[in-house]
Write a structure and sequence with these properties.
17 strands; 30% helix; 508 residues; alpha/beta; 8-stranded mixed sheet; FAD/NAD(P)-binding domain; 6-stranded mixed sheet; Flavocytochrome C3, Chain A, domain 1
Length: 508
Amino acid sequence: MTNINAQWGGWARQPDPIPKEEIKRTIIADVVVIGAGFAGVTCALRSAQMGAEVVVLEKSSSWTACGANIGVINSGYLKERGYENDPEAVAREWIKLCGNRCDEKILWLYLKNGGRAMDWLIDIVTMPEYGAVPALRGCMYKGETYREIVASHCFTGGQIPNHPAGAAINAMSCESVKLGVQYLYQTPAEQLVKEDGRVTGVIARDHDGYLLIRARHRGGVVLATGNIGGNDEMCKDLAPIANRCAAKVYWKKDGNMGDGHRMGLWAGGSFEDTPFPTIMHPQAFHYSNFFFLFVKPDGTRFMNEDNYVQGKSVALIRERLEYAWAIADSDWATKVPPTLQYGGGMFWGQDCLLGESDFSIEWEKKNFESGIERGVVVKADTPEELARGMGVPEDAFVQTFGRYNRMAAGGKDEDFGKRRELLIPLDKPPFFGMKFGSALLAVVGGLRVDTKMRVLDEYSSPVRGLYAIGNTAGGRYGVDYPIHVAGNSLGTALTFGFLLGESFTQSD
């Protein structure tokens, strides 16, 4: 188990205590939530519904919602539409994809309770004043190797029609305010207060100076500050792969700096084993990459292109690539749709709602046109011309291109074992080269917690009065992000925020 390490950078050094005389005012509440993201706002609302007095600290000017899909298994909404997933099968697949390094107790807490939390959320978001409509995500990898199940929920319409997660967090935030939850925006938390071995509050700073927010014994302090992805120094020590992505997305400037991770560490908490897992999608540069032929900047092939988003991203990082090129021919509109039954998913297929068309040729054409305008898609009449346009060695690329087509004609991938159904020749010019790279969405590792979301010290004892949820907490993954249940990062944020809020009717 990893705790404060002398080899870590300056981020790990605990600051001097803030002098008491600099604290201008004190607020007392049952529950103090640090971070107004999906997990934090969920916890705040559920705590208030259970009768707790809640204060939420947020360093930004509003709540923050990242992502679109909220993955849980076996909600009432799913069952009403004829879908019921086997929790044991989901758990086995999850554990396998996580290399047996996830905390199975945490996983089962999510699997058993996520549906109830989603039913609660749907009741809120579909209230007339918010007017959003629930839906299920339809873009999934359907092959056996990386199968994604129907479990990902989102919301359309309503007050924030173009932000599925935003529609949910907006409704929860509004409902929590009705119940008296106090949001202190532009008020970053700086230090936890610990007395007699218990975390009793947090010192924050607003435009007037320092203030102390104390948590009554029946509640506690909840760390829900997001992930460490915005802090390159922390990533270097705890998740080095994150700094090797071509882009970092999904957060505001100065967000996801690991504030809660550090405060929890300084209060006596411990981290899960490093390196922390990451969520990565191959969406840097051009959005689509399909499945045909991927080549490195040296013109050579490097993987079986029949893979899912995390797998493609990891392959790029493994090869030390900022980007690669996905090759297609002008017959892509005919060749891609039939393959969605064998694979698909994001950046191969397209984001769609279950029951809607899963591939829009017109949308993809506009995507190609945009890529050409931005210089991340190259169009050429011959492989030689395409190589020059991509800036890759012509001889190497032409050899790779020719070998790929010969193997496709023979029906056997002798290099990487791609399935026959997906070994489709690129034989109709003009040809396209689509530049793509790994994008970091989040580093999904953090403080060790138990099934009550209590932060654990290096001896696995709870740090009294301190909790962690969302991407500030660890235990869910271990190695890589399993997209078997797409959107499960938000799904676990919802589930554990909901459960923790419910628990504040009792003392820890």
